[in-house]
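Section 5.1 Outputs to date
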Amino acid sequence: FNKGDIKNTYGTGGFMLINTGEKEIISKNGLLTTVAWKIGDKVMYALEGSIFVSGSLIQWMRDGLQFFKSASETEGISKSVEDSNGVIIVPAFTGLGAPYWNDTCKGAIFGLTRGVDKRHIVRAGIEAQAYQSKDLIE
């Protein structure tokens, strides 16, 4: 509820809102200006960034790749390895949202070697969610 507060929501996509107070701020970095709320005559604004693929990346690994049976397994799988072993996922299945706004970008997995197994790819998927959120905040 305070200017500067940030809220991230993770679902199929990911959505970040940063409270900018009573003044509309026009982003120069690809975020959208939106009304956070209005109570009486007081209007509070926010900057919003949308990540197109967040939880749906986990769904794809579950349903498409069949890496696990339940999304809740991703935490244990991710923690079972020290890192992603160099794997990076760009989950641009439907393009990239904020701050890039590129609807022609395609998803990619980089850094595959014979030392990589599905645990590293799952870990890279979890990290991809964090990296996208970091991009929005920065």
